[in-house]
Amino acid sequence: MTGMDWNAALTYLPYFLEVLLWGAVTTVICTAGGFVVSVALGIVFGGFSSSPSPLLRGIAYVYVEVFRAVPLLTLLFIIYFGLATIGLKFDAISAAIIGFGVHGGAYLSEVFRAGILSINKGQSEAAFTIGMTRLMAFRYIILPQSVRVVLPPLANFAIGLLKDTSLASAVAAPEMMFNAGRLASETFFATEIYLLVALLYLCMSLPLSYLSRSLERRMGKGYAR
Amino acid sequence: MTFTQFTTLAAEWMPELLVAAGHTLKMAVAAYVLGAVAGLLVALAGRSPQRWLSTPALIYIEFIRGTPTVTQLFLIYFSLPLIGITMPAFEAAVIALGLHYAAYMAETYRAGIEAIERGQHEAAQAIGMTRSETMRHIILPQSLRIILPPMGNSAISLLKDTSVASLISAPELMLRAHDLTSEYYTPMQLYLIVGAMYLVMTYPLSLIVRRLERRASKGYRTGSS
Fold first, then answer.
1. Is B3 helix (H, G, I), strand (E, B) or coil?
2. A208 interfaces chain B, CB cutoff of 8 Å
3. Within the 42-81 window of chain A, which residues sit less than 8 Å (CB to CB) from chain B?
4. Close Cβ partners of A56 (under 8 Å, ≥ 6 residues apart)
5. B174 to chain A, minimum CA–CA distance in Å?
6. Could you report the predicted ipTM of this complex, rounded to two decimals?
């Protein structure tokens, strides 16, 4: 391949799109799976780090600091290649979802902590006076109210996660970027293919970013900030 | 593997890994400088009343923020040769990461600039300053307080994102670990060590950022968020 040959690339376009869109399905699966795990871990550790117990706060601190400091790619390699050597074998997609989950959980626990701390202390005190336990107060009073604070950064996180799933290509999870690499080595239209991939990612991330912007506007409504 | 075996191997790997960590730091610093400078230009262009300056800047920001780092890296690395520019993977990675962070830093600058009250602009105009003088002497120095903490956070994520450069075989820590893995077949040990090395590099930065955040909000009633 000596230069860009857009006409030749164009004849391949349906084939490229087919392979890439199949990859996009896996991308969406990785994103959705990673998001669910991240939110679950984020709520647990966010709850820990805003709890009065120094032990729980310590656990949350270590979790957040360690998993935020290690690059996502390193984490994926530890889970996919590393854990396999001690007998814990995951397929690439599960490994990716676990990796995105524990990594994202560390980010989101900070988000949830901020959301929880933004709720007036009087709310949990009122919950205690009507006989709720700490866990009930957290579940029924604090968490639902913190959604307003948490939702906009959550949407931003989803956008970041969608793009980060491209790293799963490094552990051969058949998502969009991985399929693009396959196509590129098959047909040598690297530039055209990666441009197409960029456009497809834009098609997925731009609607999300409009959603996050409208969430930010809507969630700020009715509250003096 | 016993603990003694592990320590012997770790001692064997360490010199190579430390050299590679040096490359990682070099890559991060170079990309950061590029990003900080290019980001400021993009931010100023985006605020310009001239449409031919502001529109490309806004499209640039949306494109970069909507597509994955890996895709941008591959696009730059595999496409530049087609227009006659060949460069080593290391330089390509610096350029790709720099241009990637430029978009995020531009948004940071924008937030910093917009946080300064209109009155400051008006007062500067009233004493006869031009637009660029106002920016240089009045607005930018004051917005520094708001800009510094997110700029520190960018430094942390940039340092971690250099790991992605291993995917185009740029010499840095992750690539070295990858090479050693194929030599020793000990991915678990190697990637855990590498993860710890990233932690050692980013943790001081994250302490500095936290201090910056505290200092930034000092003496001001509203926080810097």
1. helix
2. no
3. 65-66, 68-75, 77-78, 81
4. A48, A49
5. 7
6. 0.86
* pLDDT 10s digits, B95-142: 999 999 999 999 999 999 888 888 998 999 999 999 889 988 998 888
| Long-range Cβ contact pairs of B107-112 (< 8 A, separation 24 or more) | B107/B43, B107/B61, B107/B65, B108/B39, B108/B147, B108/B150, B108/B151, B108/B154, B109/B39, B109/B40, B109/B43, B109/B44, B109/B143, B109/B147, B110/B43, B110/B46, B110/B47, B111/B146, B111/B147, B111/B150, B112/B143, B112/B144, B112/B146, B112/B147
Cβ pair A48, A59 in contact under 8 A:
yes
Distance spanning both ends of chain A, measured CA to CA: 57
Q: What is the pLDDT of residues A182-213, one digit of tens each?
A: 999 998 888 899 999 999 999 999 999 888 88
Q: Which of A27, A64, A73, A197 would best serve as a mutation to test chain B binding (most B beta carbons within 10 A)?
A: A73
- Please give the single-letter amino acid code of residue B58: L
Determine, for residues B71 and A164 on separate chains, whether the beta-carbon distance falls below 8 Å. Answer: no
B75 touches chain A (CB under 8 A): yes
Inter-chain contacts counted by CB atoms under 8 A, chains A and B: 125
Domains, chain B, ordered by start: 3-224 (1.10.3720.10)
Which fold is adopted by the domain A6-224? MetI-like fold (1.10.3720)
Residue pair A41/A101 in contact by the 8 Å Cβ criterion: yes
Please list, residue by residue across B193-212, b when 16 or more beta carbons sit within 10 angstroms of its beta carbon and e when fewer do. bbbebbbebbeebbeebeeb
Out of A3, A84, A195, whose CB is closest to B75?
A195
